[in-house]
Structures are given as structure tokens and as C-alpha cells.
Amino acid sequence: MKTSTYFMRIILCICACVCLVMDAVSPVKQGIVWTVSHNLLDSYYPLMFMLCGKIFLERYDGKVRTFYFNGFYKILLPFLAASMVVLITKIGFSVSIGFMRDYIKGVAFGGIEENYSFLYSVIMIYILAPFFTHMMQSLSEQEKRFFFFLLIGYFTFFDIFVILDMKLAIVGYPFLNVTGYVMLGYLIDHIEWKKSEIRMILFGGLASAVISCAEAVWFDGRNWALDLYCLTRAVMCAAVFLLISKMEFRTKSAQKVIIGLGKSAYYILLLCPILLRFVI
Amino acid sequence: MDGKNKQSYMHTYGLLRILTCFSVVFHHMISSNTSYIQAVSYGWIIVALDNILMCNNDLFFMLSGKFALERYDGRIWNYYKNKLLKIVLPMVLVSVLYYFKQNGFRTDGLSFADFVQKFFANGILGYLWFVYVLIGFYLIVPILAPMFRSMKQKQLIAFTALMMSAVISDDICGIFHVPFVFSSFPFLDISTFLLGYLADHIDIKKKCEYMIYAAAIPAGAVSCYMAVAHQDMKELCFLRALMCCFVYLLVTRHTTKFSELFGGWIRRISNQTYYIYLLHGLVQGFFYQYAWNIWVILYQLPFIAALFLASVIIFCMAALVSAFIRITQRGCKRMFGRLQVPEIQRSGK
Predict the structure, then answer these.
(1) Which chain B residue has its CA at the smallest distance from A166's CA?
(2) Between the N and C ends of chain A, which has fewer C-beta atoms within 10 Å?
(3) Nearest to A169 among B120, B162, B186 (CB)
(4) HEC sequence for A49-116
(5) Is residue A129 within 8 Å of A179, Cβ to Cβ?
(6) Which among A124, A118, A129 is positioned nearest to A82, based on CA atoms?
(7) DSSP readout, B181-222?
(8) DSSP, residue by residue, B12-71
(9) What is the pTM for the complete model shown?
């Protein structure tokens, strides 16, 4: 994995933690600065799935068992352990059938910690990664570009319907969910962009950030898809993803620090809600 | 597969398309007369039968998924152009027709804006929801087709197992009214489309095929029981998927001789099923307005009336649509044939 990927993990982890703290401290929106910063930091969520797309789909090398085994002890086990800790902080520990029932029920239906809901999507993406890898590897450069614009286009199409308060009838499209961002993450990294295209995406990202913030401040509640499935969010995330993935860290000491911190980002993210529970 | 085998293979799918189209029309004939169903003593039989007929949507999806994923040839824009001409354009025309039938024609520009708004939100004709879902799926076919084609047998089986376990989990969560945590599984909504392709491309052995048949019978019984006794419960997609697989495999694998015998008829009617589907509401409205009441007053048999009228709609509309297509094709040939510059003139000789 490249150093820039670890760096992105750190940035996303920080953004996620700041967002969680902001939500916990001040759940009601306060002023323009709060709204703008929260709106920008909220990009961590789609970016996290984009990063998942890049990491998981690149990691799979055809060996299914090894791939799933790695996922089991790197993603699932820490999640199960963190869920157990959260449950203990909530109801206390006891060696009883009731406790185990609560634990299994909580893990199976996502009721233990609200902030862990994204992990179910991550697990699902991990399970599907061999198939997605197959899909992406069988696409030509032209098809990859087409898919990229289809994903962005469909988000836009959906957002227009939300803004106009209309029901979207075209529902057989499978990527109007977080997997859309998973695909986007992989595609951004694997399409051979020209320099002019990179510049356009970065400029588009900047413009999207301005529009998105303006929307959040002056048209609050009008566009409920603003956080996730809309053109501005998708372009903004694409720009940030592209920008960070093109970063290079030349000094070895910087690389070491970034890789070390990046590796523990997932565990920090798991522990953050538990720490928040103690602090607040 | 040689020419003859391929033809009979296509005829079996044609037969399935006709059966599916028939059950759509029949279902709509029955469901538009719920007062009769409630009134008659054998109403529960009609409800149970209607529940089995409801497999029609999924069977259509299975057929669409199979053909869309199989026939995509790698040319994206050509593919979309074809779909636009064959699927979207007729749908728009039918929607315009229905819209003006319902609202009348206005020249103040309001009707156009209203039409566009209703068209995109499926507010003109309820049963066209099927086509909207189809369009959503067709959008992604150029991406999914290469994936499925490059998959090996083991991968196809693993994918089917994964997809069906997601469907079953979603059903179980629905029964117990608990959230399905893996709801972002992208293939949940298009599982029936993919099932059509998978059912044909996985080497299902005879033993396994009979096991599916054996499982589908109790699945059908449970589904019918739920439709009659527990209408408030969530519709179980897994049971329906089993029922659909039963019909799909039975018709496509065991009706070869029958399909060969009536090959010509099957081909002619099955080519028009999409147009029959689009237009059947209009014709059904006409029948319902004039023929239905007379029949029921005379014979008191709404069920037989629905069966008879559905058959009449299918045959008459197939004949009308194919005649219309033939006439317009001839007209186009004549018009554009005249416009074509002869080969000798083009080469300058």
C-alpha cells in the first residue's frame, strides 16, 4: 500500500473523530462556521468507502481463503471486540445467557453502537470484494471512464429528484448506495487521467465545496441528499481523493510515522465512540 | 448449439415470455375487480391463484436479465441507442397517449411540464413501474455483463449463494421487524434479474433441478397461505424466487417439443409481448367498461371472464401490433428506399 493511502486513513480518522465530537458536544447546529466545517468534515463518510474500494479491491489477489481470513482477523474480530466493550460499558459485564443474547442480538441487528453502522457496509464490501475486483478487472479504460461518469451522473440525477421533491421511479440501478462510492474510489485511482482532467476535477471539487457549504448554510433541509448522494459531495470527494492519492512523501522518517499511524487508524475509529462515552 | 437447437431453445424462452405476459394481463384483470373476489365464496382460490400469477414480474425480470447480460456486445453507445429505441421510446409514446386520455390536450405549456414531472416519477400509469426498474438495470448492464461473463462456475455458484443469503436475511429481518444491517448490498434489488442469468449459466444437474422443483411446491403453498391468511405480512422474496425458478426451469427445459410444434406462433406473439404489456391497460379499460359487466351479469363468472378476456387481449393485440409494425416497416422501406442513391451513381460511373 502506498504512503498516501495511509495518510488518507489518518486524515479520515481525524475527520471522523472531529465529526463525532462535534455531534456529541453540539447536536443542534450553531452558526455558519459550525455548519460549514461540519459539512466539509462530513465528507469523511463517502471518502472512507472510496478508500475501502481502493484498498479491498487492490488487496484481493485471487486467493479467496487468505483474503477472507485476513478480513476476519483485521476487520471482524476488532469490531466484535469493540462491540463487546461498548456493551459492557452500557450494561456491565456478566457471564450469563442474557448477556450473550444481548450481545449476539446487538451485533446481528446493529443495535449496540449507532456509530458502528458503517462497519456493516464495510464488512459487506469486503465480502463482495472478490466479485467487484473481477468486475473492475474485466473493464476496459473506456468502460472505466464510462462507469465513473455514470456513477456521478446517477448521483446528480437522484439529487435533482430530491431537490424537486419527486419520487425516483428508476430504481433498478444497484449503485445508489455506499457501493457507488466504493466503485468511485477504485476508478479514480485506476483511470489514466490527463493533467487537464486532474485540474478540472480539482477545480470542480473546490467549486462543489463552495456550493455545498452555501447550500448547507442558506438552504438547510431542502436537499436531504446533500451529505451523501449528490453531485457536489461526489465531486468534492473525488477531488480530495485524487489530491491525496497523488501526494508523495519522500523522507523516510515521515513515511514511517504515517504508515505507523495509518495502520492504527481503524482501531482508533473503533475506540473513538467508547472514549466519547467516557468523556461526555 | 446448432441452428435448429438454438431455434427451439429460443422458442422455449418465447413461450415463457408469452406465459408471463398472459399472467400479467390476467392478474390485472382479476385485481381490478376485488369487489367480486370478496363477494364470491371461492374468493380465496382466486387470491391464491393471483399470488402464483404474481411471479410474472419476477419472471419478466429474469428473462430481461438473462438476455440483457448475454446479448451485450461491448459497444456501449450502440447498446444504449438500441434500448432507447426499443424500450424507452415506445414507453414515452404510450405514456403520452395515456396522459392525454386522462387529462385531455392543453396548449398552454402546462401539460408538457406536468407530463414531464409525472413521467419521471411514474405518475402516469402505475403498472409501468416495471419498465422504470428495467431502465435502471439496463443502465448498469455494460458494467455487469463483463463481470458475469468472465466468472467461472465456482464463482457463479458462490455469487448466487451470497445473493440468496442476502435475500433470505432481508426476508427474516422483515418478518421480525428488525433492520437489515447489510441493506447496502447492491444486488438485492436486482437479484431476480441476475437470477435469470445465473439459472442459465450455472450447470444445474438433474438432481439439483428436481430439488428446486421439490422445494418450490411447499414454497408456493406457504406463499399462497400467507397471501390468503396474512396479507399484512411482508412478501417473502425467497419463496417467490423459488417459485420463479421452478417455472423458469420447467418451461425453458421441458417444453422443447411443444415449443417446436408451435414455433411460428410463439415467435410471432413473443416478439410483441413488450408492446402488449405497454398497451394492455388501455385495452383492458375498454373491456372492463363494456364487456366485463355484460359477462358477469349474464354468467356470474368473473374468474372465467378474466381468463377469457386476458387471452383475447393477448391474441388480438399481438395481431394488431405485428400488423402495425409490418405496415410501418414497409412504409419506411418504401420511403427510405426511394431516398437511397443507387450504387452506380455513388461510385460515379
Answers:
(1) B121
(2) C
(3) B120
(4) HHHHHHHHHHHCCCCHHHHHHHHHHHHHHHHHHHHHHHHHHHHCCCCCHHHHHHHHHHHHHCCCCHHH
(5) no
(6) A118
(7) TTTT-TTSTTHHHHHHHHHHHS---HHHHHHHHHHHHHHHHH
(8) HHHHHHHHHHHHHHHHHHHHTTHHHHHHSTTHHHHHHHHHHHTHHHHHHHHHHHHHHHHH
(9) 0.86
CA–CA separation, B312 and B11 (whole Å): 22
Judge contact between A174 and B190, C-beta under 8 A. yes
Q: Locate B44 and state its grid cell.
A: 380465496
C-alpha distance from A171 to closest chain B C-alpha (Å): 5
Q: Which of A68, A117, A122, A134 to mutate to test the interface with B (most CBs of B within 10 A)?
A: A134
Write the DSSP string, A15-42.
HHHHHHHHHHH--S--HHHHHHHHHHHT
Q: How far apart are the first and last CA of chain A?
A: 36
Grid coordinates of A64:
479467496
Distances (CA, A) of A40 to A17, A28, A223: 14, 17, 16
Q: Is A260 helix (H, G, I), strand (E, B) or coil?
A: helix
Q: Is the ipTM here above 0.85?
A: yes
CA distance A190 to A153: 19
C-alpha cell at A100: 450473550
> At CA A270, angle to CA A269 and CA A274, rounded to 5?
110
Task: Compute the distance between CA of residue B67 and CA of residue B196 in angstroms, rounded to an integer.
Answer: 9
B157 touches A: beta carbon within 8 Å: no
Distance between CA atoms of B139 and B142, rounded to whole angstroms? Answer: 7
**CB-based contact A143 B187, cutoff 8 Å:** no
Rounded to whole angstroms, how far apart are CA atoms A257 and A253?
6
Count CA within 13 A, CB hemisphere, residue B94: 22
Distance of CA B205 to the CA centre of its chain: 27
Q: Is A126 exposed, middle or buried (0-12, 13-18, 19+ CB in 10 A)?
A: buried
Cβ neighbours of A161 in B, within 8 Å: 120-121
Residue of chain A with shortest Cα separation from B174? A109
Q: Which three cell numbers stand for residue A163?
A: 431537490
- The angle, 0 to 180 degrees and rounded to 10, between the axes of the packed helices B263-270 and B302-339 is 80
Tens digit of each residue's pLDDT, chain A (280 residues) = 688 889 999 999 999 888 888 888 776 657 888 888 888 988 899 999 999 999 999 888 888 889 999 888 888 999 999 989 888 888 888 888 888 888 888 888 887 887 888 889 999 999 999 999 988 888 888 889 999 999 999 999 998 888 888 888 888 889 998 999 999 999 998 999 899 999 999 999 999 999 999 988 888 777 788 888 889 999 999 999 999 988 888 788 888 888 888 888 888 888 888 887 777 6
Per-residue model confidence as pLDDT tens digits over A182-207: 999 999 989 998 999 999 999 999 99
Beta carbons of B159 and A131 less than 8 Å apart = yes
Say if B324 is an interface residue toward chain A (CB within 8 Å): no
CB of B292 within 8 A of CB of B33? yes
Residue type, B304: I
Task: Give the residue from B60, B83, B147 with the most A CB atoms within 10 Å of its CB, the best one to mutate.
Answer: B147
CB contact under 8 A, B146 and A139: yes
- Structure-block grid coordinates of residue B54: 404474481
Q: Which residue does chain B place closest to A137, by CA atoms?
A: B147
Answer whether A231's CB lies under 8 Å from A152's CB. yes
Residue A186 near residue A136, CB atoms below 8 Å = yes
